[in-house]
Amino acid sequence: MAIVVNLDVMMARRKMSLGELAQKVDITMANLSILKNNKARAVRFSTLEAICKALDCQPGDILEFVPEEESK
Q1: What is the pLDDT of residue 68?
Q2: Which residues pair with 63 in a beta bridge?
Q3: Angle (deg, nearest 10), helices 18-25 and 45-55
Q4: What confidence category does residue 59 fall into, taking pLDDT thresholds of 50, 70 and 90?
């Protein structure tokens, strides 16, 4: 996968649990877990905006482009 989700890194930096973030973003823990574990196929901008607001970060802090050769 060329896009890597670093949500767990930002959550650790902010000392925020998955349950706390799910509540702040108003998303199920299951869906947030899918995103956190790089299993998501898409993310809505409204969800990304809410996550960034809750974690006080930029989208680039959460999403990272990794060329295919480097991800293997």
Answers
A1: 80
A2: 5
A3: 120
A4: very high
Sign of the C-alpha dihedral computed for residues 55, 19, 33 and 41 taken in this order: negative
- Residue-wise pLDDT tens digits, 15-52: 999 999 999 999 999 999 999 999 999 999 999 999 99
Query: What dihedral angle (degrees, nearest 10) is formed by the CA atoms of 65, 7, 14, 51?
Result: 100
Q: Which domains does the chain show, CATH number per domain?
A: 3-67 (1.10.260.40)
Please count the CA atoms within 13 angstroms of the CA of 4 that sit on its side-chain side.
13
Maximum Cα–Cα distance for the chain, whole Å? Answer: 37
